[in-house]
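Morning - heme C inputs below, output right after.
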Amino acid sequence: MQTFVFPNWVNRFTVVSIVGGLAVAGYLATCLFGAIHPEIINVGHQPKQPVPFSHRIHAGQLKLDCRYCHNTVEKTGFAAIPATATCGNCHGGNRVKEGATLGIVKGDSPLLEPVRVSLETKNPVLWEKVHDVPDFVYFNHSAHINRGVSCVSCHGRIDTMEVVTQVEPLSMKWCLDCHRNPEPNIRDPQLVTALDFKPEDPEAYGKEWAKKLGIKPNVSCSTCHR
Ligand code: HEC
Ligand code: HEC
Ligand code: HEC
Ligand code: HEC
Ligand code: HEC
């Protein structure tokens, strides 16, 4: 008497299709999650840089103001990455003879070789971009910096980072959440680069400065899509 209704290969087929089915379902769920929560995708983005530049050393320990290097941030939409000449103020090295005032901090460090080559050849160091909103979004640094929004609200404690990491989603919802309720993020515009600043009563402080500056962020589509 025949005891098996199905031949043996059907069992194997069943296992394979269950495993395959789960894999496909997992893949689709991941895609869907990404589509619904596009904001999470770039958080933690931390590309490898040609020189291991440390904000913890330069902005934290040495207390260089952000604007010493990102010197367009309060004048234009774009926060310029410094030219190598700025690094050369301190890391000129022995091989660079023009420009009498070049410093020689760590002048023979192998980590700074790309900096010295760039100073000699005038070819820029090719830094990888960390933060990037899509081209159909209009963003402007000066419109925030001059209105009392600190770098820390959008970039976190850069002054403690060995390697710059994206800490905020930069999604539309993220922009709008603050545009609808800006007060907790408003401070004296003189203090926008003091990333460790903490007022005694944050709520009252934010309200006071938002009022003093007449802060009223736009939420119409054309503010950010023009
Ligand atoms: C000595 C020069 C220097 C100082 C001072 C400095 N930076 Fe930078 N910054 C750089 C360089 C070089 C890069 C590009 C390499 C990298 O990403 O680490 C950079 C990258 C960044 C980025 C990422 C840019 C991107 O591609 O998205 C942010 C954000 C940033 N800096 C914020 C700050 C803030 C905030 C401060 C002040 C607390 C500061 N920086 C101080 C030189 C500097
Ligand atoms: C105001 C002076 C100053 C400027 C400007 C400056 N640095 Fe530095 N940098 C220092 C000092 C000081 C140290 C060393 C800290 C220490 O003793 O470890 C350092 C350390 C470094 C190191 C680690 C070197 C090693 O061998 O440990 C790198 C890499 C570096 N800087 C890159 C840069 C780059 C890239 C720029 C330009 C974007 C820059 N620095 C601008 C002062 C400066
Ligand atoms: C309101 C949020 C916000 C504030 C405040 C802010 N940034 Fe940014 N930053 C961004 C966004 C968003 C980008 C990506 C812009 C793009 O892709 O066009 C960015 C990009 C950058 C870059 C890369 C170059 C560029 O412009 O794309 C640097 C450098 C930078 N920020 C430095 C700073 C510094 C320094 C401060 C404080 C003085 C600061 N940011 C304050 C949101 C902010
Ligand atoms: C932490 C709070 C905060 C975040 C996050 C933020 N903004 Fe703003 N934004 C402001 C404030 C405050 C103003 C200034 C409002 C005023 O001048 O009254 C402003 C102004 C602007 C302006 C200038 C508007 C004008 O009328 O000229 C643009 C453009 C803008 N934001 C775009 C963006 C975009 C795009 C994002 C997200 C990538 C973003 N903002 C994220 C707080 C924020
Ligand atoms: C304060 C700035 C801001 C305002 C105001 C704004 N957007 Fe956006 N929008 C963004 C940003 C930033 C992105 C990119 C999101 C990303 O990369 O995940 C975006 C993306 C989009 C996208 C692409 C799909 C998506 O969700 O990524 C559409 C469509 C869009 N916005 C439509 C609108 C419409 C319609 C309005 C008015 C009701 C509006 N936006 C108002 C900042 C804004």
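Note: The mean pLDDT is 85.

O.
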